[in-house]
Protein backbone atom coordinates (compact mmCIF):
# COMPACT_ATOMS: atom_id res chain seq x y z
CA UNK A 1 0.00 0.00 0.00
CA UNK A 2 1.30 3.46 -0.82
CA UNK A 3 1.06 4.75 2.74
CA UNK A 4 2.96 1.87 4.35
CA UNK A 5 5.67 1.85 1.69
CA UNK A 6 6.06 5.62 2.14
CA UNK A 7 6.40 5.16 5.88
CA UNK A 8 8.90 2.32 5.58
CA UNK A 9 10.90 4.32 3.02
CA UNK A 10 11.05 7.32 5.33
CA UNK A 11 12.25 5.07 8.18
CA UNK A 12 15.32 4.04 6.20
CA UNK A 13 18.60 5.58 7.23
CA UNK A 14 21.45 6.71 5.00
CA UNK A 15 24.88 5.58 6.10
CA UNK A 16 28.20 6.77 4.67
CA UNK A 17 30.94 4.14 4.92
CA UNK A 18 34.55 5.27 4.52
CA UNK A 19 37.08 2.47 4.86
CA UNK A 20 40.15 4.69 5.02
CA UNK A 21 43.18 2.46 4.56
CA UNK A 22 44.75 -0.86 5.63
CA UNK A 23 42.47 -3.11 7.66
CA UNK A 24 40.02 -0.20 7.90
CA UNK A 25 38.82 -1.06 4.41
CA UNK A 26 38.52 -4.78 5.24
CA UNK A 27 36.58 -4.34 8.49
CA UNK A 28 34.24 -1.66 7.10
CA UNK A 29 33.45 -3.84 4.05
CA UNK A 30 32.72 -6.83 6.31
CA UNK A 31 30.54 -4.68 8.58
CA UNK A 32 28.53 -3.26 5.68
CA UNK A 33 27.89 -6.80 4.41
CA UNK A 34 26.45 -7.66 7.82
CA UNK A 35 24.20 -4.56 7.92
CA UNK A 36 22.85 -5.24 4.43
CA UNK A 37 22.65 -9.03 4.86
CA UNK A 38 20.66 -8.61 8.07
CA UNK A 39 18.11 -6.52 6.22
CA UNK A 40 18.57 -3.47 8.42
CA UNK A 41 16.76 -0.42 6.99
CA UNK A 42 19.93 1.31 5.83
CA UNK A 43 21.16 2.58 2.48
CA UNK A 44 24.95 2.61 2.40
CA UNK A 45 26.89 5.17 0.37
CA UNK A 46 30.62 4.79 -0.28
CA UNK A 47 31.75 8.14 -1.70
CA UNK A 48 35.37 8.66 -2.82
CA UNK A 49 37.90 9.45 -0.10
CA UNK A 50 41.56 9.06 0.85
CA UNK A 51 44.08 8.01 -1.86
CA UNK A 52 41.46 7.06 -4.44
CA UNK A 53 39.82 10.49 -4.10
CA UNK A 54 43.16 12.25 -4.42
CA UNK A 55 43.59 10.47 -7.76
CA UNK A 56 40.02 11.01 -8.99
CA UNK A 57 39.13 14.37 -7.40
CA UNK A 58 42.44 15.91 -6.36
CA UNK A 59 41.53 15.89 -2.63
CA UNK A 60 41.22 13.24 0.13
CA UNK A 61 37.76 14.53 1.18
CA UNK A 62 36.12 15.95 -1.95
CA UNK A 63 33.18 18.32 -1.54
CA UNK A 64 30.67 15.61 -2.58
CA UNK A 65 32.01 13.29 0.16
CA UNK A 66 31.85 16.03 2.77
CA UNK A 67 28.25 16.79 1.76
CA UNK A 68 27.28 13.10 1.88
CA UNK A 69 28.72 12.86 5.41
CA UNK A 70 26.93 16.00 6.61
CA UNK A 71 23.59 14.82 5.22
CA UNK A 72 23.86 11.17 6.35
CA UNK A 73 22.15 9.66 9.38
CA UNK A 74 25.37 7.85 10.25
CA UNK A 75 29.03 7.90 9.22
CA UNK A 76 31.26 4.85 9.71
CA UNK A 77 35.01 5.21 9.27
CA UNK A 78 37.61 2.41 9.09
CA UNK A 79 41.11 3.58 9.93
CA UNK A 80 43.72 6.14 9.01
CA UNK A 81 47.29 5.14 8.37
CA UNK A 82 49.12 8.25 7.28
CA UNK A 83 48.91 10.30 4.07
CA UNK A 84 45.52 10.92 2.51
CA UNK A 85 43.67 8.69 4.98
CA UNK A 86 44.85 10.89 7.86
CA UNK A 87 43.34 13.89 6.09
CA UNK A 88 40.00 12.02 6.19
CA UNK A 89 40.07 11.52 9.96
CA UNK A 90 41.30 15.09 10.38
CA UNK A 91 38.15 16.28 8.57
CA UNK A 92 35.83 13.89 10.42
CA UNK A 93 37.20 14.57 13.88
CA UNK A 94 38.91 17.93 14.16
CA UNK A 95 37.42 19.97 11.34
CA UNK A 96 33.91 18.95 12.48
CA UNK A 97 34.81 19.66 16.14
CA UNK A 98 33.97 16.15 17.34
CA UNK A 99 35.21 17.02 20.81
CA UNK A 100 33.91 13.95 22.66
CA UNK A 101 35.54 10.59 21.95
CA UNK A 102 33.27 7.91 23.42
CA UNK A 103 35.11 4.60 23.73
CA UNK A 104 33.08 1.83 25.38
CA UNK A 105 35.12 -0.94 26.99
CA UNK A 106 33.10 -4.06 27.68
CA UNK A 107 34.02 -7.66 28.32
CA UNK A 108 32.20 -10.26 26.22
CA UNK A 109 32.32 -13.83 27.49
CA UNK A 110 34.78 -15.75 25.31
CA UNK A 111 36.98 -12.73 24.53
CA UNK A 112 40.71 -13.01 25.16
CA UNK A 113 41.23 -10.83 28.23
CA UNK A 114 44.61 -11.15 30.00
CA UNK A 115 42.76 -10.88 33.34
CA UNK A 116 41.71 -13.93 35.34
CA UNK A 117 38.33 -12.34 36.15
CA UNK A 118 37.25 -9.90 33.45
CA UNK A 119 33.52 -10.55 33.88
CA UNK A 120 31.50 -7.40 34.38
CA UNK A 121 33.96 -4.94 32.83
CA UNK A 122 31.72 -2.23 31.40
CA UNK A 123 33.12 1.30 31.27
CA UNK A 124 33.49 4.13 28.79
CA UNK A 125 36.72 6.00 28.25
CA UNK A 126 35.55 9.52 27.39
CA UNK A 127 38.34 11.32 25.63
CA UNK A 128 38.39 15.09 25.29
CA UNK A 129 39.28 15.28 21.61
CA UNK A 130 39.91 18.91 20.83
CA UNK A 131 42.30 20.42 23.39
CA UNK A 132 45.19 19.20 25.54
CA UNK A 133 48.48 18.21 23.95
CA UNK A 134 47.22 15.90 21.23
CA UNK A 135 46.22 18.20 18.36
CA UNK A 136 49.92 18.98 18.01
CA UNK A 137 51.00 22.59 18.45
CA UNK A 138 54.75 22.26 18.16
CA UNK A 139 57.62 24.50 17.27
CA UNK A 140 61.24 25.49 17.70
CA UNK A 141 62.44 26.38 21.20
CA UNK A 142 64.06 29.48 19.74
CA UNK A 143 60.60 30.81 18.82
CA UNK A 144 59.24 30.03 22.29
CA UNK A 145 62.25 31.72 23.84
CA UNK A 146 61.59 34.88 21.82
CA UNK A 147 57.90 34.92 22.76
CA UNK A 148 58.23 33.95 26.44
CA UNK A 149 61.81 34.55 27.57
CA UNK A 150 60.89 34.39 31.27
CA UNK A 151 59.05 31.07 31.04
CA UNK A 152 60.54 28.77 33.67
CA UNK A 153 59.79 25.29 34.99
CA UNK A 154 59.16 24.44 38.65
CA UNK A 155 62.86 24.21 39.37
CA UNK A 156 63.35 27.75 38.08
CA UNK A 157 65.09 26.67 34.89
CA UNK A 158 64.18 29.14 32.18
CA UNK A 159 63.35 28.09 28.69
CA UNK A 160 66.30 30.11 27.41
CA UNK A 161 68.69 27.75 29.22
CA UNK A 162 67.83 24.74 27.06
CA UNK A 163 69.54 26.00 23.93
CA UNK A 164 68.07 24.67 20.71
CA UNK A 165 65.25 22.14 20.66
CA UNK A 166 61.51 21.80 20.18
CA UNK A 167 58.40 22.37 22.27
CA UNK A 168 54.73 21.34 22.32
CA UNK A 169 51.85 23.34 23.79
CA UNK A 170 49.07 21.96 25.97
CA UNK A 171 45.82 23.93 25.87
CA UNK A 172 43.02 23.75 28.47
CA UNK A 173 40.09 26.18 28.37
CA UNK A 174 37.08 26.52 30.69
CA UNK A 175 34.54 26.18 27.83
CA UNK A 176 36.41 23.14 26.52
CA UNK A 177 36.40 21.39 29.90
CA UNK A 178 32.83 22.39 30.67
CA UNK A 179 31.44 20.93 27.46
CA UNK A 180 33.25 17.58 27.83
CA UNK A 181 32.34 17.40 31.54
CA UNK A 182 28.68 18.09 30.71
CA UNK A 183 28.92 15.37 28.06
CA UNK A 184 30.35 13.02 30.72
CA UNK A 185 27.38 13.79 32.99
CA UNK A 186 24.84 13.06 30.24
CA UNK A 187 26.64 9.82 29.42
CA UNK A 188 26.80 8.75 33.08
CA UNK A 189 23.09 9.60 33.51
CA UNK A 190 22.18 7.53 30.46
CA UNK A 191 24.25 4.59 31.67
CA UNK A 192 22.78 4.94 35.18
CA UNK A 193 19.35 4.61 33.62
CA UNK A 194 20.49 1.25 32.25
CA UNK A 195 21.98 0.06 35.56
CA UNK A 196 25.32 1.92 35.46
CA UNK A 197 27.14 3.22 38.52
CA UNK A 198 26.46 6.91 37.98
CA UNK A 199 30.11 7.82 38.36
CA UNK A 200 32.55 10.11 36.58
CA UNK A 201 36.24 9.31 37.11
CA UNK A 202 38.43 12.21 36.02
CA UNK A 203 42.00 11.48 34.89
CA UNK A 204 44.72 14.16 34.84
CA UNK A 205 48.29 14.71 36.04
CA UNK A 206 47.28 17.67 38.20
CA UNK A 207 49.99 17.06 40.78
CA UNK A 208 52.67 17.82 38.20
CA UNK A 209 50.74 20.22 35.94
CA UNK A 210 48.51 22.18 38.34
CA UNK A 211 47.82 25.08 35.96
CA UNK A 212 46.68 23.01 32.99
CA UNK A 213 45.69 19.55 34.26
CA UNK A 214 44.75 21.00 37.65
CA UNK A 215 42.38 23.42 35.90
CA UNK A 216 40.82 20.51 33.96
CA UNK A 217 40.29 18.61 37.23
CA UNK A 218 38.84 21.67 39.00
CA UNK A 219 36.38 22.60 36.24
CA UNK A 220 35.34 18.97 35.65
CA UNK A 221 34.61 18.56 39.35
CA UNK A 222 32.61 21.81 39.45
CA UNK A 223 30.47 20.67 36.50
CA UNK A 224 29.83 17.16 37.82
CA UNK A 225 28.98 18.37 41.34
CA UNK A 226 26.68 21.11 39.98
CA UNK A 227 24.97 18.52 37.76
CA UNK A 228 24.17 16.42 40.82
CA UNK A 229 23.18 12.78 41.21
CA UNK A 230 26.59 11.43 40.16
CA UNK A 231 29.71 10.39 42.04
CA UNK A 232 32.88 12.29 41.12
CA UNK A 233 36.37 10.90 41.68
CA UNK A 234 39.78 11.86 40.36
CA UNK A 235 43.00 9.90 39.84
CA UNK A 236 46.37 10.95 38.47
CA UNK A 237 46.94 9.26 35.15
CA UNK A 238 49.60 6.82 36.39
CA UNK A 239 47.39 5.69 39.28
CA UNK A 240 44.36 5.69 36.96
CA UNK A 241 46.14 3.36 34.52
CA UNK A 242 46.91 0.95 37.35
CA UNK A 243 43.33 1.05 38.58
CA UNK A 244 41.93 0.33 35.10
CA UNK A 245 43.97 -2.88 35.09
CA UNK A 246 43.45 -3.84 38.74
CA UNK A 247 39.87 -2.66 39.34
CA UNK A 248 38.26 -2.34 35.89
CA UNK A 249 34.81 -3.26 37.20
CA UNK A 250 34.87 -0.17 39.44
CA UNK A 251 34.95 2.20 36.46
CA UNK A 252 31.97 3.77 34.76
CA UNK A 253 32.60 6.97 32.76
CA UNK A 254 36.34 7.72 32.72
CA UNK A 255 36.81 11.35 31.69
CA UNK A 256 40.29 11.85 30.25
CA UNK A 257 42.29 14.70 28.84
CA UNK A 258 43.05 14.11 25.17
CA UNK A 259 46.39 12.28 25.15
CA UNK A 260 45.64 10.33 28.34
CA UNK A 261 42.37 9.14 26.77
CA UNK A 262 44.19 8.07 23.63
CA UNK A 263 46.57 5.91 25.68
CA UNK A 264 44.14 4.66 28.33
CA UNK A 265 41.55 3.56 25.78
CA UNK A 266 44.07 1.16 24.21
CA UNK A 267 45.05 -0.04 27.69
CA UNK A 268 41.44 -0.55 28.76
CA UNK A 269 40.58 -2.23 25.45
CA UNK A 270 43.36 -4.73 25.98
CA UNK A 271 42.18 -5.41 29.54
CA UNK A 272 38.70 -6.27 28.25
CA UNK A 273 39.87 -8.46 25.37
CA UNK A 274 41.91 -6.56 22.81
CA UNK A 275 42.23 -3.53 20.59
CA UNK A 276 40.39 -5.32 17.79
CA UNK A 277 37.25 -5.22 19.93
CA UNK A 278 37.21 -1.53 20.91
CA UNK A 279 34.60 0.67 19.20
CA UNK A 280 34.15 4.42 19.38
CA UNK A 281 31.92 7.31 18.49
CA UNK A 282 33.17 10.88 18.13
CA UNK A 283 30.56 13.51 18.92
CA UNK A 284 30.29 17.24 18.39
CA UNK A 285 27.26 19.34 19.25
CA UNK A 286 25.50 18.54 15.96
CA UNK A 287 27.82 15.97 14.45
CA UNK A 288 28.91 12.39 15.08
CA UNK A 289 30.86 9.71 13.30
CA UNK A 290 31.89 6.22 14.39
CA UNK A 291 35.15 4.30 14.06
CA UNK A 292 37.12 1.57 15.75
CA UNK A 293 39.76 2.68 18.25
CA UNK A 294 42.46 0.79 16.36
CA UNK A 295 44.45 2.04 13.37
CA UNK A 296 45.26 0.62 9.96
CA UNK A 297 47.37 -2.26 11.37
CA UNK A 298 49.91 -2.43 8.51
CA UNK A 299 51.40 -5.60 10.05
CA UNK A 300 48.25 -7.62 9.20
CA UNK A 301 46.59 -5.54 6.46
CA UNK A 302 45.62 -7.40 3.29
CA UNK A 303 45.63 -10.83 4.92
CA UNK A 304 41.93 -11.00 5.74
CA UNK A 305 42.56 -11.81 9.40
CA UNK A 306 41.69 -8.51 11.10
CA UNK A 307 39.11 -8.71 13.84
CA UNK A 308 36.02 -6.77 12.65
CA UNK A 309 34.46 -6.61 16.14
CA UNK A 310 35.51 -3.01 16.86
CA UNK A 311 33.90 -1.82 13.64
CA UNK A 312 30.78 -3.96 14.10
CA UNK A 313 30.34 -2.51 17.59
CA UNK A 314 31.03 1.00 16.24
CA UNK A 315 28.27 0.32 13.70
CA UNK A 316 26.00 -0.70 16.57
CA UNK A 317 26.69 2.66 18.26
CA UNK A 318 26.02 4.39 14.94
CA UNK A 319 22.67 2.61 14.48
CA UNK A 320 21.65 3.62 17.99
CA UNK A 321 22.60 7.24 17.28
CA UNK A 322 20.77 7.13 13.91
CA UNK A 323 17.50 6.15 15.59
CA UNK A 324 17.68 2.38 15.14
CA UNK A 325 18.18 1.24 18.77
CA UNK A 326 16.57 -2.18 18.25
CA UNK A 327 18.90 -2.96 15.33
CA UNK A 328 21.83 -1.65 17.38
CA UNK A 329 20.98 -3.97 20.27
CA UNK A 330 20.48 -6.95 17.93
CA UNK A 331 23.88 -6.38 16.32
CA UNK A 332 25.68 -6.17 19.67
CA UNK A 333 23.88 -9.27 20.91
CA UNK A 334 24.91 -11.17 17.76
CA UNK A 335 28.56 -10.18 18.28
CA UNK A 336 28.33 -11.33 21.92
CA UNK A 337 26.88 -14.65 20.78
CA UNK A 338 29.77 -15.29 18.36
CA UNK A 339 32.19 -14.72 21.25
CA UNK A 340 30.25 -17.11 23.47
CA UNK A 341 30.24 -19.75 20.71
CA UNK A 342 33.98 -19.24 20.20
CA UNK A 343 34.12 -21.00 16.82
CA UNK A 344 34.93 -18.07 14.51
CA UNK A 345 37.32 -15.98 16.59
CA UNK A 346 40.21 -14.24 14.83
CA UNK A 347 43.91 -14.70 15.65
CA UNK A 348 44.04 -11.78 18.12
CA UNK A 349 41.42 -13.69 20.14
CA UNK A 350 43.31 -16.97 19.98
CA UNK A 351 41.29 -18.39 17.08
CA UNK A 352 42.08 -19.01 13.43
CA UNK A 353 39.04 -17.36 11.91
CA UNK A 354 39.05 -14.72 9.18
CA UNK A 355 37.49 -11.27 9.01
CA UNK A 356 34.81 -12.54 6.64
CA UNK A 357 34.29 -15.72 8.65
CA UNK A 358 33.69 -13.77 11.85
CA UNK A 359 31.36 -11.31 10.11
CA UNK A 360 29.51 -14.22 8.48
CA UNK A 361 28.99 -15.80 11.90
CA UNK A 362 27.58 -12.50 13.22
CA UNK A 363 25.21 -12.40 10.26
CA UNK A 364 24.11 -16.00 10.93
CA UNK A 365 23.52 -15.11 14.58
CA UNK A 366 21.42 -12.12 13.51
CA UNK A 367 19.36 -14.22 11.13
CA UNK A 368 18.79 -17.04 13.61
CA UNK A 369 18.30 -14.84 16.69
P1 LIG B 1 47.15 -0.14 15.19
O1 LIG B 1 45.95 0.08 16.02
O2 LIG B 1 46.97 -0.03 13.72
O3 LIG B 1 47.76 -1.59 15.50
C1 LIG B 1 48.33 -1.91 16.77
C2 LIG B 1 48.42 -3.45 16.90
O4 LIG B 1 47.11 -3.98 17.09
C3 LIG B 1 48.97 -4.13 15.65
O5 LIG B 1 49.75 -5.23 16.03
C4 LIG B 1 47.73 -4.60 14.93
O6 LIG B 1 47.93 -5.75 14.11
C5 LIG B 1 46.78 -4.91 16.08
N1 LIG B 1 45.40 -4.67 15.67
C6 LIG B 1 44.79 -3.47 15.52
N2 LIG B 1 43.54 -3.65 15.11
C7 LIG B 1 43.34 -4.97 14.99
C8 LIG B 1 42.22 -5.75 14.58
N3 LIG B 1 41.05 -5.19 14.21
N4 LIG B 1 42.36 -7.10 14.56
C9 LIG B 1 43.52 -7.66 14.94
N5 LIG B 1 44.61 -6.98 15.32
C10 LIG B 1 44.51 -5.64 15.35
O7 LIG B 1 48.24 0.91 15.69
P2 LIG B 1 49.68 1.28 15.09
O8 LIG B 1 50.32 0.05 14.50
O9 LIG B 1 50.37 2.02 16.14
O10 LIG B 1 49.37 2.32 13.92
C11 LIG B 1 49.25 1.97 12.54
C12 LIG B 1 48.73 3.19 11.79
O11 LIG B 1 47.38 3.46 12.22
C13 LIG B 1 49.53 4.47 12.08
O12 LIG B 1 49.63 5.19 10.87
C14 LIG B 1 48.65 5.23 13.07
O13 LIG B 1 48.83 6.63 13.00
C15 LIG B 1 47.27 4.84 12.58
N6 LIG B 1 46.20 4.97 13.60
C16 LIG B 1 45.01 5.43 13.16
C17 LIG B 1 43.94 5.50 14.04
C18 LIG B 1 42.63 6.02 13.52
O14 LIG B 1 42.37 5.91 12.35
N7 LIG B 1 41.75 6.54 14.35
C19 LIG B 1 44.09 5.06 15.36
C20 LIG B 1 45.31 4.53 15.77
C21 LIG B 1 46.37 4.47 14.87
Lay out the secondary structure.
Blueprint: H1 2-11, E1 13-20, H2 23-37, E2 42-45, H3 50-57, H4 63-71, E3 74-79, H5 83-95, E4 100-106, E5 122-128, E6 138-140, H6 141-147, E7 166-168, H7 174-193, E8 199-204, H8 213-227, E9 231-236, H9 237-246, E10 253-256, H10 258-272, E11 281-283, E12 288-291, H11 309-321, H12 325-341, H13 355-368
Parallel strand pairs: 1-2, 1-3, 3-12, 5-10, 8-9, 8-10
Antiparallel strand pairs: 4-5, 4-11, 6-7, 11-12
The chain binds nicotinamide-adenine-dinucleotide (NAD).
Nicotinamide-adenine-dinucleotide is lined by residues 23, 79-82, 89, 275-276, 291, 294-300, 306-307, 310, 348.
Number of helices: 13
What small molecules does the structure contain? nicotinamide-adenine-dinucleotide
- Percent of residues in helices comes to 40-55%
Order of adjacent strands in the largest pleated sheet = 2-1-3-12-11-4-5-10-8-9
Q: What's the main sheet like? A: 10 strands, mixed
Rounded radius of gyration (Å) = 22 Å
Terminal CA distance reads 29 Å
Pattern of helices and strands: HEHEHHEHEEEHEHEHEHEHEEHHH
Task: Please tell me what the overall shape is.
Answer: globular
pLDDT < 50 runs, ≥5 residues: 1-9
Number of strands: 12
Strand content: 15-25%
By secondary-structure content and strand pairing, the structural class works out as alpha/beta
